[in-house]
Amino acid sequence: MAAASAPTPSSTAEIAEAPEPLPSKLDNSEPDCPRKTRPGLKRLALTFTVLFSFLLGLPFLLKSVEIYRSPLPFREIDDLSAAVESIPLQFPCKFRAVFVGIGGSSFDANELSVKIEHQMREIAAKDSTSCGACTYNSSVCVVVENGADCFRSDNDFNWKCGALSELNKYEDSGEYNDELFDEYLHSLVDESDSRGNGNNVYTMIVVRREGQKDVSAVVGKYRHGWIVGRVSEEEAVKKVASVFVKVFVNGGKEEGSISGEFMPVGADGKIVLSFNLLNADPHDWTYDWEFQEIDDNLLAPILEYLKPLADISVESQVLYHTPKSSFSYWDETLGSYIFTTKDLPFFVEGRAILQYVPSSTECPLQLQLPNGKISKSNGFISPMWGSVVVWNHAACLNGSKMETRVRHMISSEDMRKIFEVFIGQLRQLFGLKSKGIFRDASGTMRLLTSESGFTEWELDVLSRQHTCFNLLQCTTTLGSLSRLVQSLPRMIIKEEIGEQVRYSLEAAKLALSNVSAGIYDASAVSSRRARSFAEDAFYHPSMMSVSYYSFEHCFAVYSPFFLPVALHVLLAALREWKRYKQESRKFKAWKSKKD
Amino acid sequence: MATSFKFKPLTISILLLFLYNAIASSASGSSSTTMHTNNWAILVCTSRFWFNYRHMANTLSLYRTVKRLGIPDERIILMLADDMACNARNKYPAQVFNNENHLLNLYGDNVEVDYRGYEVTVENFLRILTGRHERAVPRSKRLLSDEGSHILLYMTGHGGDEFLKFQDSEELQSHDLADAVKQMKEKRRFKELLIMVDTCQAATLFSQLQSPGVLAIGSSKKGENSYSHHLDSDVGVSVVDRFTFYTLAFFESLNMYDNASLSSLFTSYNPNTLMSTAYYRTDLYQRRLEEVPVTNFFGSVMETIHTDSPYRAFSNRYYRKSKTEMPSDQSGGGNRRALKDLDILEELADPKLNVRPLQSTYLLVHEG
Predict the structure, then answer these.
(1) What is the DSSP secondary structure assignment for residue A246, as one 8-state letter?
(2) What's phi and psi for A216, nearest 5 deg?
(3) What's the pTM value of the predicted model, to 2 decimals?
(4) Beta-bridge mates of residue B160
(5) Of B321, B359, B363, the CB nearest to A345
(6) How many CB atoms lie within 10 A of CB A274?
(7) Tell me: the pLDDT tens digits for A270-291?
């Protein structure tokens, strides 16, 4: 028996891994090798301590690989979007009108007020809702003067009755001039403002004079305009309403709403104007200009005036060899070289505001418009890029010879004319017209020009439009940013980005409150800030999709370190636990047998 | 008989209802009302080393074409490893050819490379697309497009299934490209985008795109290779790829005033000569290809508006000494077309001046 069983232990001894006696492995309940002592806890304690220390360390590990994401105020961004995008942003504006020589009772004043409002709403309804328009909710204050009588529809308007009775004498004396009358009216309108908030009030003055055949309609440099002449009540109401809506609110443009291409202001609220003088061929002649003088005298005041809209900085340069890349042809009847509007896109490579002096082979060079006429200004703009003026100097027109190799200075007179075209082009780049006339169904109006380049009411129009545009851009940018951040839950969001978003939201709220208060320039400034912060946050260079850690990446990096060790620790703990259970069962069995 | 007649109006009205719904839904998905104002081109060559000569030649040929058709350098972003022209193995130093007849030196004067050498990385490429540059990056290296821009994106190099290899060290995945395009669309950095890819299995690179307004064409489908056109035995390497070669052949016959359409370009690729199938996807693009001229992407557009008159406000200021200035109240001559200033009073009297509506070709002039 023993011999028969002897080979088996030896063969099994080969495959058995431990040199332990076999009975304890094969059969637990066999009392061949009973356990007389209670199994110890040391091994168990050891393995479990290691396991627990691993488990304790796990939260620290997860914390160390946590992605830092600055908390963004998503709810507030959504609220802002709802506030700005749902309804077109509109500003409170106040309108006033004075009628001299039309109507004669307080009933007339109220009636005129109602008629004007009605007409304004009609005109405004035809125009599609543009960004930055006025709400037409407040009533129009009307004063009616007839001889010695004076009636008001609203007591807020402190117009000095009888102030215009001198007008006849003044006009007949021959000293009348639109600009002087404008100044006079400005002083009157200023005085009449009882509440002192002259910022968003527009006034129209209608003087009916039987003796005058033609009607002169002029819009001044400030915030008022006038119509003088033989004009009936109906016509006067129509004209006044159309001036209010089309000129004071919409800026005198004949088209509808402003589109983004007339917003030359960059995302950070700055514009760089670069003035370049290009000489086509230095062999023929070279010109230079005294830009510093122009900058000091003319340009700086204009740019100062535009400060609420944008921070404008100016640079200038003179280039001495810039040939044109398109061709022009010689026209005998006009006596000059012609380039047409079709050649314009290939004119010159470059940007900003250019003044081009053509070479002798192409002098004089004139621009022909599609209707066959020759351009008076010889210039054109390209929105979002800049403008070009072609200047043919006097010697070229005379055909006289010029000294080469000498730098000729452009005369101050020519500089002034060129500069006027530049300013006209700058106005066009902002979306206003360079011409001083406004034409529509009710007639023609003359728009006075201002030495600051832009009149006060034009600046109001631009402020409103820029505010609206900036706020819309700001909310879309913040919305895109919040969608982006939420769609990439493992992308790092730096603290800086969170700060910029918060500043942007603050500035946007300030802008909205300024809008409802009707302060145009402050709202333009704060909307600009809001937009620039939002753009900075969105375009922060750290938010690149290639540089965030996906979960797979994290797993792939850390698992080779921890997974094998963790596996062994876990298995060891399990094995010890199993062994402990076995041993204690054996001990219990022996104990029960003993008893 | 009577019942069938009764059914007819019912079916007709149901059909009309469906038609109306179809029209309404397609109208809601139509493109925005912004105007096309400028064109940009991003030309990327993702290979380096001498044996990838043809990729650099591809990119430079397209650069030359796009410049000839009018896009200025400031609106072209050219990314090249730029190690061919002055390579020690180049028998013709400082010259790069795309044809064995050596008639055209692509690397002549007037080549402006924006990202060269080791700057051509996936990160920089994605930064260009999304616009997230470091503060110090100069303007010439940025894509300064806006919502009226049409962008041409051309990429060439070695590619595979859903990826494109960059400089033999990293890869651009198709989902990264799709993600970048999605962000561009959100931020309205383009109106329309044309992606041309000349690599092996090119069509897989744009398979994940989902943004509207994107048109894409690749030189080969999934599982196919793209081949080079011919070997220049003098230079010693292949000098141009087939897809680019036939694209250039199409454009060589064009000048800046032509208006061949995109569909004629896309259908000009013959699978037999290409030795692969040029695959394009138009499902994200709203316009019909027959109506889109190639110069919408490959040429230049500059919307121009004429300046009516100077802004006369400075006659009293500025130089007190000049006595020759014309006071603005006096009217100038009648209809003389000389270069004298005509002033506002004369304009008021002229009945022929009227407001012209905007002419809507891609050259827009407003005159009034």
Answers:
(1) I
(2) -105, 125
(3) 0.77
(4) B163
(5) B363
(6) 15
(7) 887 888 887 877 777 788 888 8
Dihedral-angle region of residue B135 (phi above 0 means left; psi in -120 to 50 means alpha; beta otherwise): alpha
d(CA A84, CA A67): 33
How many Cα atoms are found within 13 Å in the side-chain-facing hemisphere of A177? Answer: 6
Q: How far is CA A105 from CA A109, A377, B257, in A?
A: 7, 50, 67
* Structure-token match 């009973």, residue found: A34
Nearest to A415 by CA among A391, A399, A435: A391
Helices (H) and strands (E) in chain A, counts: 17, 20
Among the partner-chain residues B70, B176, B303, the one whose CB lies closest to the CB of A383 is B303
Backbone phi and psi for residue A82, each to the nearest 5 degrees, phi listed first: -60, -40
DSSP assignment of B319-368:
-SS---PPPTTS---SS--SS----HHHHHH-TT--PPPPP-SSS-----
Say how far apart CA A327 and CA B365 lie, in whole Å: 19
What's A200's DSSP letter?
G
State yes or no: is B133 an active-site residue.
Answer: no
Output the pLDDT for position B357. 32
Determine the angle formed by the axes of helices A233-242 and A106-126, rounding to 10 degrees: 50
* B218-249 tens-digit pLDDT: 999 999 999 999 999 999 999 999 999 999 99
Which whole number is the average pLDDT over A108-131?
A: 80
Q: Is B86 a catalytic residue?
A: no
Q: Quick check: A140 and A117 in contact, CB under 8 A?
A: yes
Q: Would you call B148 and A260 a contact, using CB atoms and an 8 Å cutoff?
A: yes
Confidence grade of residue A342 (pLDDT, cut at 50, 70, 90): low
Q: What is the pLDDT of residues A188-197, one digit of tens each?
A: 777 766 555 5
* Buried/exposed B10-23: b ≥16 CB within 10 Å, e otherwise: eeeeeeeeeeeeee
Contact B307 A484 (CB under 8 A): no
Both tokens of B109, joined, read 């004067």
CA A543/CA A486 separation, integer angstroms: 13
By three-state DSSP, how is residue A281 classified? coil
DSSP states along A296-352: IIIIHHHHHHTTTT-EEEEEEEEES----SS--EEETTTTEEEEEGGGGGGS-S--E
CB A153 within 8 A of CB A112: yes
Q: How far apart are CA B204 and CA B268, in angstroms?
A: 21
pLDDT in tens, B272-316: 999 999 999 999 999 999 999 998 898 877 667 777 777 877 765
Would you call A377 and B339 a contact, using CB atoms and an 8 Å cutoff? Answer: no
Whether ipTM > 0.85 holds is no
Structural element, H or E, at residue A40 = none
Give pLDDT tens digits for A208-266.
877 777 788 888 888 888 888 888 888 888 888 888 888 888 877 765 444 555 666 77
How far separated are the first and last CA of chain A, in Å rounded?
33
